[in-house]
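Hello,

Our lab assistant flagged a job as stuck in the queue for most of the afternoon. It eventually completed. Since we weren't sure the result was trustworthy after the delay, we are filing this so someone can double-check. Below is the sequence as submitted and the structure that was eventually returned. Let us know if re-running is recommended.
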Amino acid sequence: MSKPIAVDDKTFDDTVLKAEVPVLVDFWAPWCGPCRMVAPIVDELAEEYSGRANFAKVNTDENPGITSQYKILSIPTLIVFNGGQPASQVVGYRPKSELKKILDAALAKQRHA
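-- returned structure --
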């Protein structure tokens, strides 16, 4: 998967929690300025980590179930899921280098599991 895929309340479990590889989930909304700043970074990471990690986007306005389940209070919130569990989380705009560090950490944990 080389582009983030949109997931919703119905597809979240199969796409994210049952994934064989780490999944970075971008919780966002169309009206959110910082979300629009993070989106191209997530797209670039999806290309760079293709085959090693998956990337998903959850529109918080359209998916209140997942949003409340993971207690998303501010957006953008990026959560890396590994083995069906949240492994790390960042809130707000973060530079690409910081997001790469959390992805690399999730991939390293996966290799040692």
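-- support follow-up --
The delay was a queue issue, not a problem with the job. The result is valid. The beta strands are 5-6, 23-28, 54-59, 77-82, 85-91. The domain at 5-106 is CATH 3.40.30.10 (Glutaredoxin).
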